Amino acid sequence: MKRRLLAILLVLLMLSSLSASAFAAKNDTVELLIGGVTSMNAKDAVTKFIELVEDYSGGTITCVDFPDNQLGNDEQRWEMTQTGECDISIGSTSSVASSYNDFYIFDTPYLFLSRDEAFDVGFASEAGQAIIGGVEELGLKGLALWENGFRNVTTNNKEINSLADLKGLKLRTMDNAIHLAAWKAMGANPTPMAFSEVFTALQQGTVDGQENPYGIIVGNKFEEVEKFAVETRHSFTPYYVVMNLDKWNALTPEQQDAVTKAMEEATQFEKEQSAKYEAEDVGTIEAAGCKVVKLSDDALAEFKAAADSADCASMAMEKMAHPELGQELLDALAAARG
């Protein structure tokens, strides 16, 4: 009798344990807080990532999305991801290059000459992957490089058709030494200013213009206070996509695989959305009464030659923690161009 009772108790204990394990497995979900930017292509990619990662993880990963700089600017979100206040963040590599110096190479003007070159050679090269992977030194997991887009100039008082037209133009830029050197070499008067102040500065004429990708221009309605958008296409800076390293390491191998797979697909989707939105953004800019100026090949060559005279690539590599990666990236681009 005692043996039978003991057996029953053991069975009940096992069933209870299995039930508890099943309950834990069912409810052991991970929530990822994502801080993002204002560009529609990036916002769409985050939405795609969220859908995919939930699917691929079998519902064990859910996400909360905070787009449009709701969690602060690029630098603040970067720091929040380091401390774990944010799990995944997206932002411009230029904004955080002073914190992660290997990003400086991407600030070189006219480094990439096409979208495909940036993705297929720049980002996908061993050097490009090593650069984004190196953020682990700062407590981050590099997930991807996305497209921030080619940067173009907008002005509120002057149409730019040649390098000479740029002379003395008070142009809002980021407080980035390479950007400042390039614009000075091109004849402009670069004026660093916090991004949050740009719209008002353009509206009031505090600065003559600014430079940003079309997605940022339209996302912040700069076309409403500018008269000209000049396709200088002087820089193609990526978005970083990084994750808190401790949070990454806390994921199961299956969840890590889900994040990786979802991010790969979201990255391709972001590239496709970028191309689509760039065409739409031109229409939005023109509809607002802002004239889009397409520079001639000769004018673009002038701009590039002037920017090259500042030797920004060398300046970038002097600032990089691993300058050999910058050289490898330049070599990969040179080889691809033949």
Features:
338 residues; alpha/beta; D-Maltodextrin-Binding Protein, domain 2; nine-stranded mixed beta sheet; 20% strand; globular; disordered N terminus
Helix content: 40-55%
Number of helices: 14
The major beta sheet can be summarized as: 9 strands, mixed
Could you tell me the mean pLDDT? 91
- Please count the beta strands (DSSP E, at least 2 residues each): 9
- The CATH class name reads Alpha Beta
What is the CATH architecture assignment?
Answer: 3-Layer(aba) Sandwich
CATH superfamily: Bacterial extracellular solute-binding protein, family 7
Inertia-based shape? globular
Strand content: 15-25%
Which fold name fills CATH's third level, the topology? Answer: D-Maltodextrin-Binding Protein, domain 2
Whole-number tally of structural domains: 1
What Rg, in angstroms, do the CA atoms define?
24 Å
Layout of strands and helices, then pairs:
Layout: H1 2-27, E1 30-35, H2 40-56, E2 61-66, H3 74-83, E3 88-92, H4 93-96, H5 115-123, H6 126-133, E4 140-155, E5 170-173, H7 177-185, E6 189-192, H8 198-204, E7 209-213, H9 214-219, E8 228-244, H10 245-250, H11 253-287, E9 291-293, H12 297-308, H13 312-319, H14 323-337
Parallel strand pairs: 1-2, 1-3, 5-6, 5-7, 8-9
Antiparallel strand pairs: 3-8, 4-7, 4-8
Helix pairs in contact: 2-11, 6-14, 13-14
Written account of the structure:
- This protein is of the alpha/beta class and 338 residues long.
- It has a single domain, classed as Bacterial extracellular solute-binding protein, family 7 (D-Maltodextrin-Binding Protein, domain 2).
- Helices cover 51% and strands 20% of the residues.
- It has helices at residues 2-27, 40-56, 74-83, 93-96, 115-123, 126-133, 177-185, 198-204, 214-219, 245-250, 253-287, 297-308, 312-319, 323-337, and strands spanning 30-35, 61-66, 88-92, 140-155, 170-173, 189-192, 209-213, 228-244, 291-293.
- Strands 1, 2, 3, 4, 5, 6, 7, 8 and 9 form a nine-stranded mixed beta sheet that branches.
- It starts with a helix and ends with a helix.
- 43% of the residues are buried.
